[in-house]
Amino acid sequence: MSAKSIKPRLVWVLQNNQISPIIIDYLKKLKQGMTQIDIIYMMPFQDDKAREMAKELEPVAFKVSQHTEPRSMENYLKKREQIQDAEFEGGLKVWRTLLADDLGEGVLSNIKLHFDPIKNVRGIVLQIPTPLGSSTGEEFVFYAWVKLARETNIFCAGYELLPLSTRWNLIPSMVDGIITSSDISRSSLSDPTSGVGGQIWQLPRNEGKIFTPSVTGMWHHGMETAYIVRSKYDIQPDMIILYLPHNVAMSYEYRRLIEEMKEFAPRIHLMFTIGKDQIRGTHTHEEIIKTMGHDVLHLFHSFSFHDLNAGWEMTAANAVIACAHCFSTRVAEANGIPSCVYDDFVPPIQSGMVTITNDYDILRQFIRALIEEQEQVTSMAEILHDIVRNKYPKIEVD
């Protein structure tokens, strides 16, 4: 098989403290869904227990060798050559600070990776280590892959698991692109003072939650829902999904609520919850919703109906929109999903992830903000496609 006929390959590096059942499940489904890219998961040879845990990913093992120069003067001269005339604000030369570190003895290391050659690699993805949550060994592996990416001119992207909105920006600045899991990290790294020069992406909430230490079981159960809904109804990346916990007892309230959202209708998919026991005469819950909204639902991009007992499906939504604070809004709040409740009989309240209002202008502002936020996020699949297509340049290293 010629190199041209091989699908573009992407190497995803994992280490023993960077995997969990939900991440493994996510990466397995990601590989299955990326039909145009061959994702190769790789793990250090010494992480045998972690490789056993991640065996469903069929990880390829690699070895790492490290050699440390024992002579401090040699280290000092090599470091000074690399640092050149860089200086701190105020004029202090960076190389002079090496004198406070015993000339840098034992710090300069030569790290090498060992594995069978892999053809047609277009990108490398690895977790970005942080000083407050990563081991020295993990950092060495990270440096080795970054070095390999630079030597082979392959785009290297790092992803966030532990927060990157910290004072330590040196490590994130080493990669060509950063995949963040929250808007606070994206905003922090995008600040001109951060020193980060590569491309910065933010994952949508349903994927960003996978790459956080506090992910709940609901996100695991609903992992595929967003992909299924967006694919089935051809929902474009800049469109939002709203989850409406409809109740037949409030059919007129929800009819009015939908009417007030029609300004944004072409960019909205509505997910209605329905219950088998919520009927009126011979009409089912779904029929009631369609009848009450017959003259306005067609304005929206699309809409769908979901079992109200399958609460995990709300993970596909950008927010929950309701006519009363209810079970669904409490579940959403507990799982980091914003809610906006329009209720004429309750004073306005803003608490955490919940907004309760009796002003439709506030509701529209809430939806407008969701659309603006959606324009800032990029799915993991789209990011990986952009990487292998060389859409973004590598950072320049002097």
Structure overview:
This protein has helices at residues 21-33, 48-53, 72-83, 136-152, 183-190, 205-208, 217-221, 225-232, 251-260, 285-292, 327-334, 360-374, 380-388; strands at 9-13, 38-44, 60-68, 109-114, 121-127, 155-159, 177-180, 199-202, 240-244, 268-274, 302-307, 319-322, 339-342, 349-351, 354-357. The chain is α/β, with parallel strands linked by helices and 398 residues long. The protein folds into 2 domains: 3-69 and 108-203 and 379-388, Rossmann fold; 225-374, Rossmann fold. An 8-stranded mixed β-sheet has the order 4-3-2-1-5-6-7-8, with helices on both faces. It has a 7-stranded mixed β-sheet with strand order 11-10-9-12-13-15-14, sandwiched between helices. The longest helix has 17 residues, at 136-152. The protein is elongated and about 85 Å long. The two termini are 38 Å apart.
Short description:
The strands form two sheets. The chain has an eight-stranded mixed β-sheet with strand order 4-3-2-1-5-6-7-8, sandwiched between helices.
User: How many strands appear in the DSSP assignment?
Assistant: 15
Q: Using only CA atoms, what is the Rg?
A: 25 Å
Tell me what the CATH architecture of the largest domain is: 3-Layer(aba) Sandwich
CATH superfamily of the largest domain: Glycogen Phosphorylase B
Overall geometry: elongated
Tally of structural domains: 2
Poorly predicted ranges (pLDDT <50, ≥5 residues)?
A: none
User: Structural class, from secondary structure content?
Assistant: alpha/beta
Strand order of the largest sheet: 4-3-2-1-5-6-7-8
Order of helices and strands: EHEHEHEEHEEHEHHHEHEHEEHEEEHH
Helix content: 25-40%
- Briefly note the CATH topology name of the largest domain: Rossmann fold
How far is the N terminus from the C terminus?
38 Å
What is the top-level CATH class of the largest domain? Alpha Beta
